[in-house]
Structure formats: C-alpha cells, structure tokens
Amino acid sequence: MPMRKATAPDPELRPDEVEQDHAEEPEVQAEPDDRDLAAVESIRELCEVSGLDMRPEVRGVEGSYLKIELIGEDAERIFGEHGRMLDALQFVANLIISRKLGPGVRVLLDAGGYRERRLKMLTDLAREYAAEVKARGEECEIDSLPPHERRIIHKLLSEDPDVMTYSEGEEPDRRIIIAPREIPSA
Amino acid sequence: MKGFIEYLVQAVVDLPEEVRVDEEPGEVATTYRVHVAPSDLGKAIGKQGRIANAMRVLAKASAMKHKKRVYLEVVGEPADARAGE
Description:
The structure holds two protein chains of two kinds.
Chain A: H1 16-24, E1 29-30, H2 34-49, E2 55-62, E3 65-71, H3 73-79, H4 83-101, E4 106-111, H5 114-136, E5 140-142, H6 147-158, E6 163-168, E7 175-180
Parallel strand pairs in A: 3-4
Antiparallel strand pairs in A: 1-2, 2-3, 5-7, 6-7
Helix pairs in contact in A: 2-4, 5-6
Chain B: H1 2-12, E1 20-24, E2 30-35, H2 41-45, H3 50-64, E3 70-74
Parallel strand pairs in B: 2-3
Antiparallel strand pairs in B: 1-2
C-alpha cells in the first residue's frame, strides 16, 4: 500500500461538496402517506404522555425516513441540547412504531436544530479523519455512533475515491473504520 | 412520571396488562421499579439493555423539567446491564 499524499490543495476539502450533499436531498423527498401519518400520531401520543411541552411537526420524507421536528419549549431545552436524550426518544419511538405498523416506517427526530449542528460536526470529523487516513496510509476508527449518524459518514465518504468505510462491533458500541481504498487490481 | 413510564413499558411488551410500576420516593431521587411478565423481560430490557437504558434516559429527560432525579429499574434486569445509562 503506497502512502497517499496529503499535500494541499486537497480535493477532499472542497466546501461545495457539503452543499452538494444538501442539494441532493430534495430529489428523494415525497409526501407522507397513511402509514407515515399513523407514525406521527404515535409520536404525538408519546409527547403527550411525557408530560413535556413538545409536539411533532412533519418536515418531509427522505428515503424510508420520515423527518419530524419536535416543537415546544421542553423539546428545544431538553431534547435539543441533549443528543443522548433525543436519540433515546428516536429509538423508543421507532420501536413503538415498528410494533404498531410493522417494518418500513422509520422516523428521524430533531429538536432545536440539534441534527443540523451534529451534521456539521460529523462532516468536519469525517473529513478530518479521512485526511489523516490518506496522510498515513493507515485505517482509523471513529468512536461509537448511533446508526443514523454512521449512515451520514458512510454516505459522505463514499464520494471520496481514496478511502472506504465499514463498521465494526455490536450496537450500541458499533464504530466506523475509515481505511485507505484498495487499489483495484487490473 | 409514573404514567409515562407505564406507557413506555406497555408499548414495548407483549402483555401490557401485566405491567406494574412501583414508585418509591427517596431523599435524593424517586425510584421506579418496573415489573413485567417473565416472558416479557427480554422485550423490556432489550439487547445489551438498550431498551431499558433508553427508557431510563427518557425518564431522566422528563424529570429534568422539574429538576428531579429518577432511577428506573426493570425488576429482573442484571445489574451490570445498567452501566451504560
């Protein structure tokens, strides 16, 4: 395995790629169907019994994911500030929804702009690690992340011709490994 | 809070009518002991305690509003599974 050069300008760090990623989203957008609406109803019920000031608002459908933003003072103050709590709510919500409606509908919950801040942070982290992998020619590991966050990193780095990603370990300690991409043998 | 925990547990087990939550107020924190049918123990705890841990985190989230401390215990759950909360 030859060492990869990490000299500037690194095509990796072009900011337009981040925007491109956002620009791709609308083409997979769709209208919520009946099962989606039943899922929203489950979350509305969950919000009500929580005793917290929060309610769901649909933000769209992305692939098999229904994007929902939690609105309300407690949604922002508690779930928007504590990602672990937001992820726990999302995990339980999806569990309840899959028991009620069967597989196929999954929700992505957000509150107080948490996912957007996290997307920025994960993007920076993935690019930084990828640059390091290329500079050293060795693989590196990212600390355990929930499935929906690993998906962001896999997708982002799949566009990078010089690295490949895979996951190791069992939930909830499953980690992404970033490795130099094998040079295809002729 | 008790109603919220009951709702969560009943939503993930096969025998919701067998769910019982005991509330024990303490000086620093209130403890909630969750009882489920023996056949539902795995459903309430989850692999590596994931479901019980998520319910613990949600109980804490709900308690944050009132600046209270809560403990949630699924009766029958191995003690070491609770480390990851």
